[in-house]
């Protein structure tokens, strides 16, 4: 757990800007347009947090888990490095390159590691992903002065305290090419000055940016705790990342089914459906009622294959989708899309609870099933390796 | 022997207002009032008054006031009038002190030490009159994960879902047996539950065949006496409930005196007319948890696996661990009944001294089931002293799926909680088998009063949810973040799993 000034609220009350951009053909672009896009929504953030997640940014190390770490001091770093070395074969360790930026002050020590789990240590029944999740949970909950803020393969999160455009400049996201980028600008009313509290939140290759407040946080969190997720960041966005991981990776639900859990249809709407569908929707709500995300939210969830936008079921936060050739946009506002791209031909506002899914084209044909292996195959197909 | 008991109540009759209509005379089953034609005056015997307020409520000129007898022994915190009177009673009779309804001692009521949250600025509150606000609740075991097969229109749920009870408001009527209360009371409850989309519970007295038609909203209880348990009874239920214990009298059985066992009750309970109906303290086929499991599965088998099976226990010191055992034994629903839970008759010392407050039992059980990762496997229902929609909302935020109300429902039908149910002379026509008294409760009106009550609570629950920015009850369930304690110790807060106000 990273030290620093924090208030003990469990929740992050924030208004925010979110922006996502994806090339469904898998062609790459840097994070530069996102810096401009998110800066255009400056009114939605207050300088207390910004962040980016890029997918496809470590093609040479695509088989390895990349941990981005924040440390309060070298002592914490040594402790974590020892712990990592005992669990992984560490194939690379370096300081995350940054450039000085006026709006970014007092960053923690920022390191990244490319890791391969030691085969003997991974329990067969649960698999590599569960192993990595446990390691991340352990560091974030129990290791003083340390925090894992990115733990996927071939992707990375860059975030911190400041306006998002400054954070982007600081982390040089304009120099990493990727095929999906998401960005976030934050307007929190608490958790000041805490780098770990900025978005995106990440676990494995899932990352989430979120605008809103989750009023059901208390029960979402307690439900996830039953499945071994310890919510350590004291923000409600964290539960979204874990909920997505649980539903899709561990329980094998599709994106659509996941959105039917997070933004469940009303009972009256469920009753209007024909029997098999009605039974499905009823069973989903009965089973996963504790994961209904209640309260205003719009989110962008991304993984190696997809970028998904979703709002709460009564759409209390804005979300706009857009298309420009192979590029897909999801944003809090429409203007930034046009700012960075003259070719945006189509924009629309999805209904509350209706997911917008942008998928790598080769993936879209098959059944969406998360899994790093499958993802890798696809990336090879689209020419990323 | 001369009785040393003083009247519990005094009655003031305003003779200027009294019009000698004799309503009080006719209404009082305890023969407190009588009319003397020669004197053209009403007289009183206050020693018989139970304080049920029937006469005062029905007096057309409001000439009567019934109040506690202010007579007092010299001030003494230890030897209060109540204590003295109990001792006189026992010195005169050599019997066990009896009482009715729930514990009336002033143990902390934690509902009143918890406050709810509401949205301000960062999260819009929701107006339930303009926006959907969902209270629907399903009770029963839920799977840990859902398996779905097929794609598109062919998508099907592969996981076998356990049977569920569908509640349109997370409030059900608690187990109250036919025998303890009148047939009209049972009918009122059954009709109201049906209309409101919830459930009523037969208690341990069987189910009168005239009420079979409400079976879709009936929970049939199987208790230690097995009264009225037969194939049709199990068929006439939406769910079955094994009653192990009751909050008002944990650890002891029940006793319906033979005088109350009329022909109808005899037929319903399957016992000879006029005989005492004795419920043993334990089920004599359940001496351990594995025996309970056998009965749970026997009932599931007997009901073709289409009905949830519930197990009700009194909230006692380690009810959290017991609840865990019950869930593992296969129950679909666990019911916890707290120390303030009601009864038709219980020994006073048991009622007032055995068991724990439901708030603590609920919090401990929910925490325990989650820690063990088995909270999905059963629903948790709480009973025992739920007085208002706010209590319901707080119970759900602490972790309950739904609440049972018993006393509140009876009060809705007229009960004034005089605690004399065991006498069989209920002037409100509820806890009685006397046809003259029982007909005072008209089931049309009883059902309407209950549906009104549930409707009122339903609106209030929706308002409170909306205020918190939540539009479905499942987002409040177990959401202890939305509760804060006021004036509670650190230990109490820890057990309840909530923060103190201001934190």
Structure description:
The complex is a heterodimer of chains A (385) and B (503). Chain A is of the alpha+beta class. Chain A has a single domain, classed as Glutamine Phosphoribosylpyrophosphate, subunit 1, domain 1 (4-Layer Sandwich). In chain A, 31% of the residues lie in helices and 27% in strands. In chain A, the strands form four sheets. In chain A, strands 8-3-10-1-16-15-17 form a seven-stranded antiparallel β-sheet, covered by helices on one side. The C terminus of chain A is likely disordered. With 503 residues, chain B is α/β, with parallel strands linked by helices. Chain B folds into two domains: 87 residues, Alpha-Beta Plaits (2-Layer Sandwich), CATH 3.30.70; 352 residues, TIM Barrel, CATH 3.20.20.70. Helices cover 29% and strands 16% of the residues of chain B. Classes of the chains: A alpha+beta (385), B alpha/beta (503). Chains A and B meet through helix 5 and helix 9 of A and strand 9 of B.
Q: Give the helix level of chain A as a range of percent.
A: 25-40%
Element pattern of chain A in H and E: EEHEEHEEHEEHEEEEHHHHHEEEEHEEHH
Reported by name, the CATH topology of the largest domain in chain B is TIM Barrel
Largest sheet of chain B: 8 strands, parallel
Low-confidence stretches of chain A: 364-385
The CATH architecture of chain A is: 4-Layer Sandwich
Distance from first to last alpha carbon of chain B: 61 Å
CATH-level-4 superfamily name of the largest domain in chain B: Aldolase class I
In total, the number of strands of chain A is: 18
Give the name of the CATH architecture of the largest domain in chain B.
Alpha-Beta Barrel
Number of helices of chain A: 12
Main β-sheet, spatial strand arrangement of chain A: 8-3-10-1-16-15-17
Level of helix content of chain B?
25-40%
Task: Determine Rg of chain B (CA atoms, Å).
Answer: 24 Å
Strand order of the largest sheet of chain B: 11-21-20-18-17-14-13-12
